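Moderator note: this is an archived Q&A kept for reference. The question asked for a predicted structure of one protein chain; the sequence and the answer are reproduced below.
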Amino acid sequence: MKKIAFTSILILFTYLVIELFSYAAYRIKFGTYQVHDLQQSKIEAANSRDKSTVFVPANAPQNGIVRKPILHPYFGFSLDAKREIPNCEQEDKTLCFERIKVDTDYPLAKRSDKKAVIGILGGSFADGTARGGGRGYFKQVMERLPMFEGKEVVIYNMARGAYKQPQQLMQLSYFLSMGAEFDVVINLDGFNEMTATYYGWRDADLHPAFPKSWNHRVNSTLSREHLEAYSKKFTLLESRSSLAEFASGFPTRWSPMVNFAWRILDPGYVRRVANVDEQINKLSSIDKNNRDFAYEELGPDHNLDDWQQVADLSADIWMNSSLAMRDLAEGHGARYFHFLQPNQYIDGAKLLNDEERKVAILEKGGYGNVYRQGFPTLLPRVKKLQDAGVHFHDMTFLFKDTPDTLYVDNCCHLNPKGYDMVVRALAKTITDDFYDL
């Protein structure tokens, strides 16, 4: 017994020494050790498997839920979902699932003296803002706005990963036609309109008005190399997510050793996914001179010979769509607010720390560097929107004085702390405008 006790004490001592050294190593390499901030970042990384904007594996249950990508007649694409029935013993396993409601299924709330309805649209950045790490922060903040005092606040999140104009316009039109009512409509976008459009044009001659990767979504014939690349990407996303889930679980979330290992390993997954994305983009290239009978996949024929022409047309679509959304929203009694999302690639937009420079910045290539090039094209349209009376607000420099880690990937996405800052900025702007009108 003494030998067992001594061995146990020795093992425990060794473990505590490892944890202590891990804590010291973490402080040396990364600075402040904040368990809460780490946990929120790990939760965001755990959700990275859902960031794929081209294909989503349709037969891989996540917490008993299977999500399937579908084409939508008005939005371009969306998701359907079903839930696995626990302890199902059917021989035909396809009978062991029941369909569940997705976001577009939920009843359309009606505004009233006792209820305020807020709709938010955009891409994955807007979706992250609305969801806020699943903590309901967006709703909590909106409930505190003085103009909604005493009212039940209903949030209708219409934002989807990879959406870009005119998809938001199509969504708003569709939901209004279905009887939706809003007090406030928030459009938070700008990044996808430049970046997704560029890669679609460069690699497949896709028209700027068509949804991201539309040629892939309607064309089921992919090369072996394409399938292998997508498989590799999904494997990396799943591995990254699984690692973050382990590190954010109990009791591992409290372990400096686990947290240090996660902080070392996670950036590697981010870089490898970016490399695979670049490989997929190259495989997607086609002969731009051969568009015969390709309208379904590529959209209208065009004479866009260089990136600036593409950027100009995309920016015009973005501006015109916003003007139409303003008219639709206000015509139905809602107030429309348009926000340009922040991004780390714009000079002076963020005080980047060492960690963010490793995880959130690519020296060349990638969506962020495309946005850096396309961003100036948006600015003249911003002024036109403001001159036309749109309540437009540029959030590009929201983080210019913030040294804390906010960005979690080399595209545009934030950790919960960053999204919380966006939510507070939205709330302040909306409140100020509400009482200035």
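Archived answer notes: The mean pLDDT is 86.
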